[in-house]
Structure formats: structure tokens, C-alpha cells
Amino acid sequence: MLEKREHWGNRFGFILAAAGSAVGLGNIWKFPYITGENGGAAFVIIYLLCIFIVGVPVLIAEVLLGRYSQLGPVTTFRRYARKHKTFWVAAGGLFFLTGLIILSYYNVVAGWSAGYVVESISGHIAAFTSSGDAAVHFQALISSPWWILSFQFVFVLAGGLVVYFGVKNGIEKIARLLMPVFFIILVLLVIWGISLEGSAAGLRFLWEPDWSTVSFNTVLTALGHAFFTLSVGMGVLLTYGSYLKKDDNVFFSGIMIALLDTLIALLAGLAIFTSVFAMGFDPAEGPGLVFNVLPAVFANMPGGSIFSLLFFSLLSIAALTSTISILEMLVSTLLDESNLSRHRVVIGTSAMIFILGIPSALSFGKWSHLQLFGRSIFDVMDYLSANILLPLGGLLVAVFVGWYMQKREVHDELLRGFGDSYGKRRVTAVWFDLVKYAAPVLIFLVFLSAIGVLK
Ligand code: TRP
Predict the structure, then answer these.
(1) What are phi and psi of 130, to 5 degrees?
(2) Atom of ligand 1 nearest to the CA of 322
């Protein structure tokens, strides 16, 4: 708390950094495979509803809370909860814990994507002749502790290095550099995918809904993923918001971030499903979709090794800008709660994240026999954090901003930097009602359905 709080260079830097946080493995690795598992277009529609009815309002609330407090999550609640302070400080602790869990296993998958950049360059991927080959190769790699832990380590190191340099010189700089590169690669991949013969089946899969596969669990998955993909529900955007100056427009920045994130998920879905269908592979492959199926797709298509190199670079960039944001939340929490220096905290937290990630990393090979509720350690981490802790975190943010802060305070904070657009009071009133009523009720219903009360 001794240091003066850093701020973003400008609003655009914030939007890029926050979009960098939002756009991640969630968009390119997870969104396509859960869409594949849950019936394509029908899932996409439910997901979009979750994003815009619940995700975006809570996202704006979270950024707003951060800008209001200019503090990390735990300290925000410690300072501003007027009632039930212990509860709210514990809620901040929950954010921290969720961040630790997500970051630990996220780095593992991020490590795979970096590993696959190397595989693409070394020509291994071009040599596959069937998806069987690709799957065997993937299995061999992820069950080799040496391979998996070294790339995980590389990734933890890279994220740590960026955060070490701070908000403006580390995070914002990297986002300004990498986000445009990311976007160009993605657009190339989409054009390439669509131009393949037989890509139309992939387009149909994404646009024509099949409602027969939809259940409550589909809605839970969609809602959990809406939070995950927007980076909402564990204080990351609160932290990024706390580096905003008071004259920035929180409302429009929030909407921009969500639009960018959604656009990029849909584009990634396009690039992936057009290729998967054009090459005759199965879209419902699960978490291995981009690692088992895509390499085989690449190997069989014209220009595949460049495509593969571009794709895994894309995945690595997306993962890096996201891991940075989670690490920054953890670091900022510790900085605000202690007298330690940024450098020390970054080194300590990174080491801890690496160690915590080891069980997830090994759960694909050596430790695959360790199971909890029939799931591997990795799956438990993923399910617990994405489907339970994040919606819970989103609920806490909505309740705090909707019910614990004073309405006038919230409106003043939102309208600061808003400019004089026509109808702003009506827009902000709708937003407030979504945060206060719609979001908590919907999240609660989905929870009930998840534990089997509603069927
Ligand atoms: N949104 C990122 C993705 O889609 C992951 C992520 C980054 C995240 N920061 C987060 C998820 C904070 C939840 C909360 O891959």
C-alpha cells in the first residue's frame, strides 16, 4: 500500500489489456469443444444470452467497483463493505483462491499450446496421417512429465516477467503489441478455413440450432463459460478497473470488451469447425479437440504446417495475455494487503502457481489414477472453478454493487466519464436492474439446477 497506484496509459490500453484477459484459452480451446459437445448452434444461442443478460452487466459492475475503490479485491471489500465486513473480506479471499486454482491449471494447457508451436516448427505435425496418429502423439506428450512441466514452467516464467514490469510498462505494452498480431492471425485462419472444400458443414453446425441436446446442464455450462470467457467473477476485471482513471467511461469500455471477446470466440469457432468438418472429423471430441483433432486436420490440408504454426501461436498469445491478468489480480491483492514490493510478490506468486499446477499437469499421465468423483485432478480444478466458483463470484459482485453499495454512489461512479449521451439515465437504470435483480436470480436458478433441485 506504500506505492502510489499505477494507471493505464489511456482508455484504449485498458480495453486492449482487458480484452487480452477475456480472450484466452476459453475462446479458442474451450468454447469450440463445449460447443461441439453441446450441439452447436443451440448452445451458441444460450451462451450469447448468458453473455449479454448476465455477463456484461456483471462485467461492468466489476470494473466499476475496481475503479471506485482503486484497490485490489480483498482490500476493496475490507475498505468499502459497510455491513458484514468479515463475510466480504472472505469473499475477496474466495476470489484469490479461485484465481490460484484457475491459474494453476490454465498454465498447463497454455504450456501445451507453446509446446505445439515447437511441434509445428519441428515438422512433427505435418507428418500425421490420421487423427489416430495425432491423438497418440498428444497422449505421449502430455503423459511425459518432462515435456509438460518444462512448457508449463516456460509459461509461468513468461507471465511472471510481464507482470514484474508493472501495469503500464508490462501488461499494457504487451497487450498493445500482441492483440493486433492475434487478430490478424485469426482473420487469416478464418479465411483459410472457409475456403476449404466442404467447410459449409462447419458453418451449418455453428448456425443451425439443434435443441434436442439442450438440458439444464447445458445452461449451467453456458453460464459458467460466459463468466470464464469474460474473465468475470474473481476480481481480475476489478483489479484492471482499479487502474482506470476517473474520467474513463466504464460502461462503454465494458461493452467493447464483451463484444471483442464474443466476436473472437465466434471467429475461432468458425476457423476450427470449418476445418474440422471439411476434413471429416468429429466436432464432439471434448477437451482434446484442438490438440487431437486439429493437428490431424492441419496435416491433411494444403499449407497445413503454416496453418498449424499460426494456430498454436494464436493460442499461446491468447493464453499469455490471460494468465498475465490472473497473476496481476493475485499480485495486486497481496500488494494492497502487505508492505512487500511488486518484484518479490511476483516471484513468490509465480513459484507458488507453478507448484500448484504440478498435480494438474501430471493428471494426464503419471497421476491419472488419482480421481475425485470420477474426475481427474485437472477436471476437478476446471469444473470447480469454472462452473461453481466463478458464477458464485459473479453473484457476489452483483450483490455487492446492487445491494451493498448505495444506489446513488453506483450511479455517480458509472456516470463519471460517461459524457453527455442522450438517454444515459435510462440505459444505466436498466443496467442497474440487471445487476441487482436479473443476475442474482438467474445465477441462483442455475445453481439450483446444477445441484439437481430443478430438473
Ligand atoms: N477469460 C480467459 C479465457 O477465456 C480466462 C481468464 C482470464 C479468466 N482471467 C480470468 C477467467 C478471470 C476467469 C476469471 O480464457
Answers:
(1) -140, 170
(2) 7
Cβ distance 253 to 15 under 8 Å? yes
**How far is 203 from 194, CA to CA, in rounded Å?**
8
B/e letters for 2-15, b = 16+ CB within 10 Å, e = fewer, are: eeeebbbeebebbb
What totals of helices (H) and strands (E) does the chain contain, helices first?
Answer: 22, 2
Give the fold, CATH level 3, of 11-450: Amino acid/polyamine transporter I (1.20.1740)
- Name the residue with cell 512487500: 340
C-alpha to C-alpha distance for 72 and 331, rounded to whole angstroms: 9
Q: How many angstroms does the Cα of residue 50 sit away from the middle of ligand 1?
A: 16
Q: What percent of the chain has pLDDT over 70?
A: 97
Q: What is the DSSP string of 396-413?
A: HHHHIIIIIS-HHHHHHH
Cβ 73 vs Cβ 96: under 8 Å: yes
Question: How far, in Å, from the CA of 143 to the mean position of ligand 1?
Answer: 26
Q: pLDDT tens for residues 330-370?
A: 999 999 999 999 999 999 999 999 999 999 889 887 787 77
Look up the pTM and report it: 0.92
Grid coordinates standing for 388? 461453481
Q: How far is the CA of 102 from the centre of ligand 1 (A)?
A: 8
262 within ligand 1 shell (Cβ under 6 A): no
Long-range pairs, 406-411, Cβ under 8 A, ≥24: 407/432, 409/68, 410/64
Break the chain into its structural domains and give their ranges.
11-450
Q: Is the CB of 31 under 6 A from ligand 1?
A: no
